[in-house]
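Structure ticket #2291
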Amino acid sequence: MRLRPRYPVLFLVSLLAAFLLWYVLSAERTREISVRGVRAQLTLVNIPSDLVLVSGVPDTVSVQLRGPLSRLLDPRTPLEVLLDLSNAGPGTDSYPINASDIPLPPEVEVVSVEPAAISLVLERRQTLSVAVRPIIEGVPAAGFVLVSVRVTPEQMAIQGPESRLEGVDFIETTPISVEGATAPVETIVQPVLPDPLLRLLSAIPIQVVVQIEPRAVATSEAR
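Resolution: structure written out below.
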């Protein structure tokens, strides 16, 4: 059996009043100011091209935000801190994190950041030309000897922070096996940099030719 309101007009007025009350309460809650803590991704931007970062950097920082509930970021929404290093110089320095480094929606402000500053070490970027040293593993077959090793290019340019280039005279290659070889071994190898902060200026293939000859031939040529 379907029931009908005895006073339809009064019923509609009551329904409208209830809706308006819900709307007002929702609007008030939306305008309510709240504080929320989030983890923000730390990104370094505008590092001068002649400098290299040599210190560790935290992945995230803790940020306290204040604003209307409807404008505050969801904790699951990524927030990023863009730390501008355009005015940085070589050496150790402390770089403050400012509210202007954090892109935020309107009506939301930064209450605090922890840590409030990041200590970084930057060094001058240098370029150095070093020898290429092939790494040979194994021995030729019985009756054969290794006569010579030729590598092309013989030198390569590497780049990195000053302190990491000190004492670097050569770079090695990935190993070349001559185990059991009875003929020349010719292959393309990769450079192995001694430090993760060093890099090659150009990706030139390294070709290595290992000359393998019969022992009798090698001995007679030596005479």
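Closing remark: Residues 8-31 form the longest helix (24 residues).
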